């Protein structure tokens, strides 16, 4: 294994770039593995699940690069540097680094000093060092930054190559104006809205981007009335990026009637979207039929949306949809024609989404619904994840009938589930007798092991647990977990 070609090892380690435990283990195998994995670890050294406050190594390595005169000055101010037992580093670590994360850097700064002024000096020197030493800066997270890094000598060259920028609205607008002078090729822009007033710098930052492809906005503030509208200027600027914008993620905490009107103006114009993820607010039911046409859409996650509005988006899509996760917070009791609309929704899926991989379905347990569900399974052969919600709108079913519906659904899955199906999640009203579940698991044997998630506590009973563990041991079930409703999505 140690003689594997270095290029092959690099490709293998690339697949583990989010798994810090495995990557750190690879360092210890031999020199070749170590030399191959170090550039991957140091590409974004702030990105690992580590308690940085207790890790002096990262601090020591960065401090090692400080010029001697700067280090002597900082020592004279009472700043301490961890001693290291070698005169030079084994690798030029910072030459691999392509990212700066202000929050993580600030978390290790107190290793040098507990005094606020000294920490300010250290921050400035660390940022300047990283701007100078990182040859190709791709990722920058400047939330809570106190230093105007765009004035550092190498800043212009580094910021011009920036691919991803992460900031928040509490940053002074003039700081964002400074970034906007040089950061004009950002493709991923992530904004955390943590104030209740507008930040004009955000709109300017959007305005200057020449190839903005991915935009994310997340509200994160106390429940207080807005001083100013924090959305209008930003989303009108975003509207002008419709020709390049492919991925949009929005997480609002609160909007009112005016914002509904704004978003109804902006969203239909973003017609190049491939990803649309919207969570925690209630405006999608107000879109008119055929108002949202996304011919390139591949990923559609919307927390609160009427079934017929979702069906219209699917009908007008270009057949590229791979993920449809909807209805998390929606109350189906408000649907006047739920049976008809849910039936239509299933038909739209198998007609317009042959490549679907992740899917939410909410439907009534009628014979016609089961028939259409089976057609969907036969057509959508790439399906990997199903989230199922059986809804009783018109009447309350008896316990016997609910169990019959659950059994019918399992029979449909055994008969027609595609070979790629790996995970099923089902809600409260999906109930299965012990006998029906065992019959299902027996027939599933021989297929890839299945993960099942549910928020129904019935399956915590002793007989169910015993059965589930038996089929876990037989590797028919990979995992069976009880989760909250929100965790089902």
UniProtKB/TrEMBL annotation:
User: InterPro entries annotated for this entry?
Assistant: LRR_dom_sf
State the superkingdom: Eukaryota
Which protein are we looking at?
F-box domain-containing protein
- The species is Glomus cerebriforme
